TrEMBL record:
Gene this protein is translated from: dppD
Gene Ontology MF, one: ATP hydrolysis activity
Membrane-topology annotation of the record: Peripheral membrane protein
Full protein name: Dipeptide ABC transporter ATP-binding protein DppD
Keywords per UniProt: ATP-binding, Cell membrane, Membrane, Nucleotide-binding, Transport
GO BP: peptide transport; transmembrane transport
CDD domains xref list: ABC_NikE_OppD_transporters (cd03257)
GO cellular component: plasma membrane
Amino acid sequence: MNDRRDAILRVEELHTQFLTSHGPVHAVNGVSFEIRPGETLGLLGESGSGKSTIGLSMLRLLPPGRGRISGGRVLFGGEDLVTASEKRMRRLRGRDIAMIFQESLSALNPVYTIGEQIAEVIRQHERLDRRAAMKRAAEMLEMVGMPDPGRRLGEYPHELSGGMRQRVVIAAALACQPKLLIGDEPTTALDVTVQAQILDLIADIQHRTGMAVLFITHDLGVVAEIAHRAIVLYAGRVVEEADTQSLLARPRMPYTQGLLRSLPQFAKGHRLAAIPGAVPNPRSLPTGCAFHPRCQEAKADCAQTLPALTEAGDGRRVRCLHWHNIAQDMDLRVRA
Ligand SMILES: Nc1ncnc2c1ncn2[C@@H]1O[C@H](COP(=O)(O)OP(=O)(O)OP(=O)(O)O)[C@@H](O)[C@H]1O
């Protein structure tokens, strides 16, 4: 959180609830972060930690009547999207802020050709005739590395492989040159080779256009690959934020340390071990630090006091009462 002036997006104290027959579910509990142009921020967390809800809240795409933003601001270029009109949001979505999801097949309409669908997105936001929009659609397909883009324009989604469909979805998302791309697990359904290609593609386009990217994922390996900075989410709260290299080399929060130890490529000298237990139910969060029942470092006060998100130097933020001692222990272990 260094240079506040430059951020294209600032999320401040976001709270989002779902109303269910069993009462409200507090899915997002005071989340703040920012993204600067040309930057990729990884939003990392286990299933149920609130990642998708943050993405949907930012674009005001929560299920009507069930999901609601109950507090906070989402400032995009200084404008608060929480209070913007629905008309304004329709203009922003797809033009200034684009979102891509995991399941490319459901994002595409089976009865229209690839070309018609990309051209339609372009024409929703720009005054172009059909021919010009089709020409731009072909250029977009070329940009995302689609072989033989002219021919692909006339094909239907089912004629393409999963990786090629995801390229089409990215082409459509980027057709209006958004300033911010939100990717919600956009590579999770793809095999590792195609996943690597898509990550390279997003990084390459970002390099050329300077767009900001919020990359939502449960996969630390993906964050390591694509994100400049990362936020770790637990039970709807940010528990750690750091530049990706520091986060991977010197995680401060025990939860982040646990995530790293559960992955072979990051375990480095530690025994490979899954974090015991599961993400808590957001209807009944533990008192104090929500992670304390699963934490190997927990002390008596962790069950009583909710730690604040604390500045820990170098733009890092940590939500842990004992991060300082744990950090010293970790550093000693790393030096030994
Ligand atoms: N439409 C909904 N109605 C009720 N509760 C919901 C709804 N959508 C999400 N939730 C709850 O909100 C919490 C956060 O869910 P969310 O989908 O944002 O998590 P996530 O980190 O994106 O998980 P995943 O990786 O599995 O998508 C979960 O407890 C989930 O059960």
